[in-house]
Amino acid sequence: MKHLIVIGSGIGGLGVAGLFGKKGYRVTVLEKNANFGGRANIFEADGFKFDMGPSWYLASDIFEHYFKLVGEKVEDHLDLVKLSPSYRIFFKDRNMQVDIQSDIEKDAAMFDSIEPGAGEQLKKYLKQSEYQYNVATNFFMFKNYDTIFDFFNRRVMTEGQKLSVFSKMHNFVSRFFKSEELRQIMEYTMVFLGTSPYEAPALYNLMSHMDFNQGVFYPQGGFYELIKALVRIAEKNGATLRANSPVAEIIVKNKKAVGVKLESGEIIEADLVVSNADMQFTETKMLDTAHQTYPDKYWKKRILAPSAFILYLGVKEKLPSLIHHNLLFSQDWRKNFAEIYKNPQLPLDPSLYVCAPSVTDPSVAPAGKENLFVLVPIASGLEINEAEKQKYADEVLAIMEREMNLPDLRQKIEYKRIYTVPDFAADYNSYRGTALGLAHTIWQTAIFRPNNFSKKVKDLYYVGAGTNPGIGTQICLISAELIYKRIHGIKDPEPLENL
Ligand SMILES: Cc1cc2nc3c(=O)[nH]c(=O)nc-3n(C[C@H](O)[C@H](O)[C@H](O)COP(=O)(O)OP(=O)(O)OC[C@H]3O[C@@H](n4cnc5c(N)ncnc54)[C@H](O)[C@@H]3O)c2cc1C
């Protein structure tokens, strides 16, 4: 029986453990932290239960596909609630707010109320998004790319034109909608991909299929329920998961991965090693220079997805102006993205996201109180001292009070934790403290993204947001499937039917 070691228990790592365990491999997962789940982490304080990372359960069909592959049903593990409305948007300095219902007629009527005729445009746009999503999931996302010809093949060249692979998201959206507000609604999801609408390929308008057409879900109990399910499935299939086990080195003999050395000095032998740890860290810190496919100089030239300035807040009363997911968009969109990507600084006029899971789920806050997760995307690598952190937190809260109808919010906070760039670096060995990894620009997508295997070391593979297909919880499960396909020589572009 082959022994496969997974370094890291992020979603990609857990995904690999489930698939290979089910196939009969002996699997050992070694996680640095006390908790499994990587960025989909959790902590509890003063009766509040905070999901630290992901909170949008999107593309439920991709989760269903993974669960089916490992012989499970999502509904046996997760109590999913479809949120209605899906989310609320506050437009900063415009005294305006709208709800996205993920109901085409209602959303079209709302679009018409902002821009006459935009309802019909929305319908056309979402048809295109659905088409793109289906082509992407059937032919592109579940495919390993080995050579440039795999990417620039006939299908990509023909579908690619239709899919708008080669134009930019902002230009694409602007062809459909004139009003700044509607453009923002269609473009904001680029932040999920760690990029800006001015850089992202228009292909990613498929994201709108997820939130508008499919809807936004929430696992009761919190997003961490997904991690618990993936751990349960991996263990059911025989995998051994070890927390508090940081790996220091991948052991290479005759250009082949033969095991790992833990920071404790313990050596564990393996036939195959899959690293789910940050790729920059794996390549530059766990391998010597002779064995690095992606050395330091490679990373210096990459565009990183943003980091985040996050506040975890326990609030002593309910906040009726908020629903589960809330977004606040700044008016000067372009400047806001520039402050993240071009002239890194704490955004003066930030766009932000507020999750209030206690609106849906009484288990995440004491009765009558609200659990808030506030996220401002900021540049990776930004250095912020303690005083600046506190000052910025206060500024962000003041903006929320003013723009989201939350009077005296600051006086109502009974628990506050700030989490930002150095925390991501320390907790997940994340390069320059990026929250998400490599941005999804065209030159960091598919064949242009770091591949999921080492070109220097046999039997060493990579899984997770740093490789293909990229960022996102369900996308990291696809990345696990891609490792499975690669190791078993399966070349089909379609999702696997069975193991
Ligand atoms: C704030 C935030 C909000 C997000 N929101 C959403 C959302 O709403 N919806 C969504 O779908 N996605 C969201 N994402 C993205 C999604 O969470 C990530 O893309 C995904 O979870 C990354 O998984 P991964 O497989 O790359 O592993 P990671 O989560 O990166 O985990 C890697 C693991 O490797 C471990 N590790 C590192 N070094 C070592 C070592 N030396 N030895 C052993 N272990 C090691 C780390 O501790 C970690 O556990 C969000 C991310 C963040 C940060």
Separation, N- and C-terminal Cα atoms: 16 Å
- Give the low-pLDDT segments: none
Count of alpha/pi helices:
18
Bound molecules: flavin-adenine dinucleotide
Largest sheet: 7 strands, mixed
Q: What would a concise description of this structure say?
A:
This protein is an alpha/beta fold and 499 residues long. The chain has helices at residues 11-23, 60-69, 74-77, 104-114, 118-140, 148-151, 154-163, 169-176, 180-187, 207-214, 224-236, 279-285, 296-300, 333-341, 386-403, 409-412, 421-428, 473-487; strands at residues 3-7, 26-30, 42-45, 48-51, 80-82, 87-91, 96-100, 217-219, 240-242, 247-253, 256-262, 267-269, 272-275, 307-315, 325-329, 352-355, 370-378, 413-419, 460-462.
Overview of this structure, please?
The chain is α/β, with parallel strands linked by helices. Among the domains are: 3-43 and 59-65 and 222-302 and 441-487, FAD/NAD(P)-binding domain, CATH 3.50.50.60; 105-193 and 201-209, no CATH class. The protein has helices at 11-23, 60-69, 74-77, 104-114, 118-140, 148-151, 154-163, 169-176, 180-187, 207-214, 224-236, 279-285, 296-300, 333-341, 386-403, 409-412, 421-428, 473-487, and strands at residues 3-7, 26-30, 42-45, 48-51, 80-82, 87-91, 96-100, 217-219, 240-242, 247-253, 256-262, 267-269, 272-275, 307-315, 325-329, 352-355, 370-378, 413-419, 460-462. The strands form five sheets. It has a seven-stranded mixed β-sheet, sandwiched between helices. A hairpin with a 4-residue loop joins strand 11 and strand 12 (267-269). Helix 1 (11-23) runs parallel beside helix 11 and helix 5 (118-140) packs antiparallel against helix 7 (154-163). It is globular. 51% of the residues are buried. The structure holds flavin-adenine dinucleotide. Flavin-adenine dinucleotide binds next to helix 1 and helix 18. Flavin-adenine dinucleotide (FAD) binds next to helix 1 and helix 18.
